[in-house]
């Protein structure tokens, strides 16, 4: 038995035949000390409903529940994992709801809305193939403050660096502008490849994002268009890269030197540019 009274994860994986599938981005965490550390990075969970994407055999799910999460709603696409997750659910009666389905087709705001009271926190060891897309969806929700009070997410280190990137760095791009605009994002800690089964090729990082109470006002779709154009040609001067949106005249209206490049603009300047479109 593990410290939570459930069988060790290796035994769970063996008894349910859960060999990892690459196509589903399956790199499992089997060490409850590490999954406990991720749960702690999400802060106090005792009043919280946690939304977890991709529980797999349930390593992180178990840590969240063991850490005292009031409730966990976990969305898993791989039906092979459902039996193992049902065992976790039985061990913590009334606290784990497993949704069998595709996170990309899930209405997270509706899920959160159905959760009765308390903060909603998103915590996940995300499948790498859909991690960035999910994060962008969560960062660009129309309603602000959003349905969640924090996000604690595992990414490849290179993606984590893009999320927390500041102007002037090579990693700074659309993701850094969106994350910096709406959240306070930081890398909590790195996780080496050998912590996963099977090990991925690269180091991973856990990123913690806390929504800003009042981000600078901007229309999210427009900001998306501006950053797409600006970083689409990141080596070019802005007067060239944002030509289709108004070029030099637009930049002058926003008070931004048209000879600058996208990677030098602060989030505040991107917002100004957006509002001038
Ligand atoms: C990196 S593994 C993490 C597993 C587990 N949480 C852990 O930490 O050991 C990603 C998980 O996401 C699941 N997954 C992949 N694509 C998904 C999707 N579109 N919707 C929901 N779950 C998905 C995979 O089946 C897998 O269980």
From TrEMBL:
Entry keyword Transmembrane helix: no
Major enzyme class: transferase
Principal location: cytoplasm
Domain Ribosomal RNA adenine methylase transferase N-terminal: 34-213
Record CDD domains: AdoMet_MTases
UniProt KW keywords: Cytoplasm, Methyltransferase, RNA-binding, rRNA processing, S-adenosyl-L-methionine, Transferase
One Pfam family hit: RrnaAD
Enzyme Commission designation: 2.1.1.182
GO cellular component terms, A-Z: cytosol
This protein's name: Ribosomal RNA small subunit methyltransferase A
Organism listed in the record: Mesorhizobium metallidurans STM 2683
């Amino acid at each position: 038995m593990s410290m939570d009274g459930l069988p060790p994860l290796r035994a769970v994986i063996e008894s349910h035949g859960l060999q990892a599938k690459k196509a589903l981005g399956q790199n499992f965490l089997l060490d409850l000390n590490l999954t406990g550390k991720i749960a702690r990075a999400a802060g106090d969970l005792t009043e919280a409903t946690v939304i977890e994407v991709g529980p797999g055999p349930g390593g992180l799910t178990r840590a969240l529940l063991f850490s005292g999460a009031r409730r966990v709603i976990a969305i898993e696409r791989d039906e092979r994992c459902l039996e193992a997750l049902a065992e976790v659910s039985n061990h913590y009666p009334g606290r784990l709801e497993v949704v069998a389905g595709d996170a990309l087709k899930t209405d997270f705001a509706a899920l959160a809305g159905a959760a009765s009271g308390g903060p909603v926190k998103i915590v996940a060891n995300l499948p790498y193939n859909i991690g960035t897309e999910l994060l962008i969806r969560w960062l660009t929700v129309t309603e602000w403050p959003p349905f969640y009070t924090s996000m604690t997410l595992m990414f490849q280190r290179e993606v984590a660096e893009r999320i927390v990137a500041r102007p002037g760095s090579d990693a700074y791009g659309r993701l850094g502008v969106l994350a910096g605009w709406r959240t306070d994002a930081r890398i909590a800690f790195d996780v080496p490849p050998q912590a996963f089964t099977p090990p991925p090729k690269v180091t991973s990082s856990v990123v913690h994002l806390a929504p800003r109470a009042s981000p600078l006002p901007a229309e999210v779709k427009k900001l998306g268009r501006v950053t797409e154009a600006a970083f689409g040609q990141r080596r070019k001067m802005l007067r060239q890269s944002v030509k289709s949106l108004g070029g030099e005249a637009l930049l002058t209206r926003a008070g931004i030197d048209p000879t600058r490049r996208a990677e030098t603009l602060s989030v505040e300047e991107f917002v100004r540019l957006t509002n001038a479109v």
